[in-house]
Design brief:
The chain is of the alpha/beta class and 208 residues long. The protein has helices spanning 17-24, 36-41, 53-62, 66-70, 81-84, 195-207; strands at 6-9, 31-33, 44-47, 76-79, 89-90, 105-106, 114-117, 127-132, 150-155, 157-159, 165-171, 173-181, 184-187.
Length: 208
């Protein structure tokens, strides 16, 4: 396990220290890089992200990372905004008087579905804190993580539930908590801030 080449893709829009430390606690020392050779040689890839979809996609394009990520053949796991960037498009361009859906930014187009502003009724946005995920307990990424386990979320936009949804969460309405498409995976929550359940998810990813 410790011999794995794990690369955290340097998107320029994330505080990477906590992500790196989470893997170091599992005995793996990741490399933070945006170099094409490092990314291509990696056994596993992490796509982190904080901030907005507009800034994140701009950074990916400026760093010439979009074709590299789309061409990845090794397992890749996106966290939070990193997961959202895997989707087809995002509503997170809205400003002023724009209505949801009027402004869309193209994302990586790897997993089906769009990122939409969450409809939460009388609940507060952002969705911040611990919430439960529900899944059928069959996917190896979720091995040893019972349905109903709690993870830590911080977000206002979310991926709709699609055929690629591996686990869902409910906050006003259901949304995708974990997505999987071929070798690409994403977690809307922060595994590195989700205690034992988050550590188990990262361990499972390393074992894929």
């Amino acid at each position: 396990m410790s011999n794995q080449k794990l690369v955290i893709i340097d998107t320029g829009c994330a505080n990477l220290a906590s992500v790196r430390m989470a893997f170091e606690r599992l005995g793996v020392t990741p490399l933070v890089s945006r170099d094409a050779a490092d990314i291509e040689r990696a056994d596993k890839l992490i796509l982190p992200g904080v901030g907005t979809a507009v800034a994140a996609m701009r950074n990916l394009n400026e760093r010439n990372l979009v074709p590299l990520i789309r061409a990845a053949r090794q397992p890749l796991l996106g966290f939070c905004l990193g997961m959202q960037m895997l989707a087809q498009a995002s509503e997170e361009t809205m400003c002023g008087n724009e209505k949801p859906g009027e402004g869309l930014i193209d994302c990586l187009g790897i997993v089906p579905g769009r990122i939409r502003l969450m409809k939460v009724g009388n609940l507060r946005l952002p969705h911040m804190g611990w919430n439960q995920i529900e899944h059928d307990e069959t996917h190896p990424l979720l091995k040893g993580i019972p349905s109903g386990s709690y993870f830590y979320f911080v977000h206002s936009y979310a991926l709709e539930v699609t055929a690629a949804t591996l686990a869902s969460c409910d906050y006003g309405t259901p949304f995708t908590a974990i997505v999987g498409q071929d070798n690409f995976f994403g977690a809307q929550f922060h595994p590195e801030r989700s205690g034992a359940a988050g550590a188990r998810l990262l361990q499972n990813f390393l074992e894929l």
